[in-house]
C-alpha cells in the first residue's frame, strides 16, 4: 500500500504544477470578496481535480491494487477494432429488446448470442471506447468502464452498447478467452443507504455488469481493500495538509 500512498502524493503535487500552468484567469469579484483569494483558488483546484478524478486518481490506484491478483493489468487500453456485421446487428437486436422491455438483461445469454455471429460475414472496422481498466488472469479477461458516482440515466443505453461491443471485439481476436465487461462505480454517493441500482436494472445485468464501491475495490485487491484505501487516502490527506495549506496561502498575496 506504500506504492499507492506515493502515487497519491505525486498525483497531487503534479496537479499543483499543472494547475499553475493551465489555470485560466477569472475575475470573480463577489466570490473573492466573500471567500478570499486562497479559498477561491482551493475551490477552483478541487473542481479541476474532480473533473478528471477517474483518470488521474481512480485508474492508477486500481492498476496498483490489481497487480498482485492479475497477470496483466493496464489502463486506457485500445481493444481490437474489427467486428463482423452480423455480430454488430446482433448487438443492436439485444439493445432493441431491452429498450422495449421485451427481455431482461442477461449477460451470459447475450454473450452466447454474440459468439454465434462472430465469424459470419465480413468484418468491419469500428471505433470503440478505450477500456479504462484491463485485467487478465489465466484465460479470463475483465474490462472495466469506470464511471462517475451518479451517471446520467440517459447514458445507460450507450454504456450497455459499449460493454457488448468490447465483448465482441475481444472474442473476435481471442475466441477461446472468457471475457467480462463491467461498469465500475468507485464509491456509493448514497451511503449509508444502498446504491440505487434500480435505475440501471432495465439495461444492465446487475450481477454480471456492475460493481460499486467495496465490490469493485475488493474484487481488484482482495477482501478489505476498500476500507484500506479509505485509510490510505485519509493518511495522505493528513501528511500533506501543511504542504497543501502552504501552497494556497500564496494566493492571499496576489
Describe this structure in words.
- This protein has 254 residues and is α/β, with parallel strands linked by helices.
- The chain is 53% helix and 15% strand.
- It has eleven helices and seven strands.
- It has helices at residues 2-22, 29-35, 37-51, 53-66, 85-99, 107-115, 156-173, 206-209, 214-221, 225-239, 241-249, and strands at 72-77, 82-84, 123-125, 131-137, 140-146, 178-185, 210-212.
- The strands form two sheets. The chain has a five-stranded mixed β-sheet with strand order 1-4-5-6-7. Strands 2-3 form a two-stranded antiparallel sheet.
- Helix 8 links the parallel strand 6 (178-185) and strand 7 (210-212).
- It starts with a helix and ends in a 5-residue tail after the last helix.
Amino acid at each position: 500500500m506504500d506504492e499507492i500512498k506515493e502515487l497519491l502524493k505525486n498525483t497531487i503535487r503534479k496537479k499543483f504544477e499543472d494547475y499553475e500552468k493551465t489555470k485560466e484567469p477569472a475575475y470573480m469579484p463577489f466570490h473573492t470578496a466573500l471567500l478570499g483569494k486562497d479559498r477561491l483558488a482551493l475551490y477552483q483546484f478541487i473542481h479541476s481535480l474532480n473533473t478528471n478524478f477517474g483518470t488521474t486518481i481512480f485508474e492508477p490506484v486500481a492498476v496498483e491494487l490489481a497487480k498482485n491478483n492479475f497477470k496483466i493489468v493496464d489502463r486506457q487500453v485500445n481493444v481490437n477494432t474489427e467486428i463482423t456485421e452480423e455480430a454488430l446487428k446482433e448487438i443492436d437486436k439485444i439493445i432493441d429488446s431491452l429498450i422495449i422491455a421485451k427481455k431482461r438483461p442477461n449477460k451470459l445469454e447475450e454473450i452466447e448470442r454474440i459468439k454465434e455471429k462472430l465469424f459470419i460475414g465480413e468484418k468491419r472496422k469500428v471505433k470503440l471506447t478505450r477500456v479504462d481498466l484491463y485485467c487478465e488472469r489465466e484465460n479470463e479477461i475483465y474490462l472495466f468502464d469506470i464511471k462517475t458516482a451518479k451517471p446520467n440515466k440517459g447514458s445507460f443505453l450507450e454504456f450497455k452498447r459499449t460493454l457488448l461491443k468490447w465483448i465482441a471485439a475481444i472474442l473476435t481476436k481471442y475466441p477461446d478467452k472468457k471475457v467480462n465487461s463491467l461498469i465500475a462505480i468507485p464509491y456509493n454517493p448514497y451511503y449509508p443507504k444502498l446504491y440505487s441500482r434500480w435505475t440501471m436494472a432495465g439495461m444492465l445485468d446487475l450481477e454480471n455488469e456492475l460493481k460499486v464501491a467495496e465490490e469493485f475495490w475488493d474484487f481488484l485487491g482482495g477482501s478489505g481493500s476498500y476500507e484500506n484505501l479509505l485509510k490510505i487516502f485519509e493518511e495522505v490527506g493528513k501528511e500533506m495538509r501543511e504542504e497543501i495549506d502552504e501552497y494556497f496561502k500564496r494566493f492571499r498575496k496576489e
